[in-house]
């Protein structure tokens, strides 16, 4: 029995370790993980750094608009329908077409909602050719601020044209610093393995859409106003 328990705990630890490694690195190269990206200097002493990347058979000009319509009750985050149906029931499904009313000329300071008004949101911290850096201090569960929980969180989405000019490498880096220690521990234990599912699903969703039909189609969803 003791040996079986030892093997069981050992297998569980090894499985969790593999999930954590893949949650931090899946799809990215060692060079990408070592590279300095826009937004890196915004979060000091991050407890979480994840790098995910994917090749998209479409030029950067065809990928970029999908990033600009992202957001809660806008274009969504291109995750599978089951994520919205079972995990985030207040979400609307992600759009499969570009909506001219939602595709935005993003500027620093623009808000990208990640939940109902007054909850989580990202702010555009840097934007340029093929670069979008989002920052948030709002991704803290409701009520936890009363216990001192806080977060400084960035996403860097980097589009790099491939050598043939017809493809794009999309690199997503997430960096987060949380406080106090117990909140940081919860995020590190839970979010990093979950990132293997969520970030990879988002990148695959972006790839499928950017490589598919590009005919714009109104969705009827109201755009954000500055």
Mean pLDDT, rounded to whole units? Answer: 88
The CATH architecture can be given as: 2-Layer Sandwich
Number of helices: 5
Distance between the termini: 64 Å
Low-confidence stretches: 4-16
Give the strand order, joined by hyphens, for the main sheet: 1-6-5-4-3-2
Helix content: 25-40%
| Topology, number of strands | 6
Provide structural commentary.
This protein has 226 residues and is of the alpha+beta class. It has helices spanning 2-25, 30-34, 60-68, 81-87, 181-211; strands spanning 48-56, 111-113, 121-128, 131-136, 150-161, 168-179. It has a six-stranded antiparallel β-sheet. The radius of gyration is 18 Å and the shape is globular.
Features:
single chain; 226 residues; alpha+beta; Alpha-D-Glucose-1,6-Bisphosphate, Chain A, domain 4; six-stranded antiparallel β-sheet; 6 strands; globular
């Amino acid at each position: 029995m003791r040996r079986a328990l030892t093997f069981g705990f050992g297998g569980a630890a090894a499985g969790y370790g593999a999930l954590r490694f893949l949650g931090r690195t899946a799809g990215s190269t060692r060079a990408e993980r070592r590279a300095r990206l826009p937004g890196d200097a915004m979060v000091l002493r991050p407890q979480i750094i994840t790098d995910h990347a994917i090749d998209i058979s479409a030029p950067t000009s065809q990928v970029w608009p999908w990033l600009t319509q992202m957001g809660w009750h806008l274009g969504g985050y291109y995750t599978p329908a089951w994520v919205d149906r079972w995990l985030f029931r207040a979400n609307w499904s992600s759009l499969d077409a570009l909506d001219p009313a939602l595709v935005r000329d993003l500027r620093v300071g623009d808000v990208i909602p990640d939940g109902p008004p007054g909850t989580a949101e990202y702010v555009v911290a840097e934007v340029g050719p093929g670069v979008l850096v989002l920052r948030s201090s709002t991704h803290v569960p409701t009520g936890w601020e009363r216990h001192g929980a806080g977060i400084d969180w960035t996403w860097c989405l980097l589009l790099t044209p491939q050598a043939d000019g017809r493809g794009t490498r999309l690199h997503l880096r997430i960096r987060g610093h949380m406080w106090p220690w117990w909140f940081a521990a919860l995020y590190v234990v839970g979010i990093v393995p979950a990132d293997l599912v969520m970030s990879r699903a988002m990148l695959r969703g972006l790839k499928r859409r950017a490589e598919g039909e590009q005919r714009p189609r109104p969705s009827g969803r109201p755009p954000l106003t500055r």
